[in-house]
UniProtKB/TrEMBL annotation:
This is Conserved DNA-binding protein YbaB. One of its GO terms (molecular function) is DNA binding. Residues 144-160 have a biased composition (Basic and acidic residues). Keywords: DNA-binding. InterPro entries: YbaB-like_sf, YbaB/EbfC. It comes from the Bacteria.
Length: 160
């Protein structure tokens, strides 16, 4: 053994107790979040109040309720449009409520609704994750300039 080194002194060793406490705190937070999601639901009405759509906490369709007989006067296409629009509205409301439940986006500087729906640009997602890490190191990031495709791009890089 090296003289003066005490393996039980804690010097130079990671704070295992602190890490375990943080892990347990995050685990309890996730368990509560799962419980809240399992109890959650989102209900929206169509613009004309003909339909009510309910989604469960996972965003899965739980119920479609027909509130009036207006559908009898509609063409199949019109009915499908009302249903589609109402389902999209329900999905959007569901994503908003999940964002509130989670306390925002898990990725800094990225809107939760865009993140959860897949509308976020992958480069922006990556930038949102890396920027805080890089800032901790005292550096900055720059977005690379992307070449614009030629009008009739054949897939080959002609600029090499």
């Amino acid at each position: 053994m090296t003289a003066g080194f005490n393996p039980f002194s804690g010097q130079g060793l990671p704070d295992v107790a602190g890490a375990l406490a943080e892990f347990e705190k995050q685990q309890a937070r996730l368990i509560k979040l799962q419980e809240d999601i399992s109890k959650a639901s989102t209900t929206v009405d169509s613009d004309n109040k003909m339909l009510t759509v309910t989604l469960d906490g996972n965003g899965q369709l739980r119920e479609i309720k027909v509130n009036t007989t207006q559908y009898r006067k509609m063409t199949p296409k019109e009915l499908a449009e009302v249903l589609t629009k109402t389902l999209r509205k329900a999905n959007s409301e569901h994503l908003k409520s999940m964002g509130e439940l989670m306390g925002g986006s898990p990725v800094p500087n990225v809107d939760f609704e865009d993140f959860a729906s897949g509308r976020s640009d992958f480069g922006e997602l990556l930038q949102g994750i890396l920027d805080p890490i890089i800032a901790d190191q005292g550096a900055t990031t720059q977005k690379p300039e992307l070449k614009k495709p030629r009008p009739q791009d054949d897939g080959w890089d002609h600029d090499r």
